Predict the structure.
Amino acid sequence: MRSGAWRLPSISRPDPVPTAAILGTGLIGTSVGLSLQNAGWRVVGWDPDEAAVAAAFELEGINAVATGRGQAIERADLVVLAGPPSAVVADLETLDTAALVTDVAGVKLPVVRAAGHLSHFVGGHPMAGREHAGPRAASAALFRGATWILCADATLPADLSRMQEIVTSLGAIPATMTAAEHDAAAAAISHLPQVLASALVQVAAGDEHAIDLAAGSFRDLTRVALSEPAWWAELLIANESEVRRMLRSLVDILDVWSDDLEQGAVDHVASRFREARRVRRTMAPPVVAVGVVLEDRPGELGAVGRALAASGVDVRDLQLRHGPHGGGGLLTLSVRPGEAEALRGALSDEGFELED
């Protein structure tokens, strides 16, 4: 942690290290700052919320704090707009810089329109996040392996190529599409699930026993309902036409499910489950799940860590299902098919009970 003065120092000569200005030091902005520093950048931050930018500096997500937006961007080679969508649009409308500018907003059409006057702009959206907001939830590892959308609308090829290089250096996987294509896809796989998670919680809350009985599958389905409400409300409104189109599509599909259930059409219902499972399996490489029973005692996760190190496996996913009142639970580790036996052996050597 840092202490002492944290204002942006004056610079009398060009800095040989590339400089990025981050406008908005919440979860994503601070994570971008951490990642850029690991890739060799100097990062200056600004946020209208002084507490947020101070926290980002304290956590070393930025190297220096600017006293205003203008000071942040005056020496920047890259400007990253990381505020809410409305703030990004407002910043773009008055932004005047020859630096390469990008953003991280979850809706792209209004952003790209607002950036039309800039000579170097590439709209962006990292498909990564957490249910917790603010700089203290930031991580330099947030973007590793994540898809990072870059919009090709009215973008110079050299600028797009540069952003692809930057995104790759942060551990993300760049993917190029138009702003309209992004907003339609994001509505389906990000915005609609956010609405659905909240709706599922609302439905369950109407039953006096349901919430107390909620276990792994319901918790997984509704995890994003823990996300920052105001930020998501603004994002959904900004993409309202695509979100409403996806909601209508979902209602139509649910009506068909309802009709099949009413008619007792077992074959139709089973067919829908099979098709959903087939598509879901294409979303990730095949894995084998290894279940580990955790006891309510100190050192359990440390022992799991030793087993992982000893086995040398590549963990593709993990899930922890807690015991009903906090004590212990079941940890499920997903690994490549050829590595499951090595992991099972290492866990058994640590004395763990494995789920069949």
Notes: The domain at 183-281 is CATH 1.10.3660.10 (6-phosphogluconate dehydrogenase C-terminal fold). The longest helix spans residues 179-205.
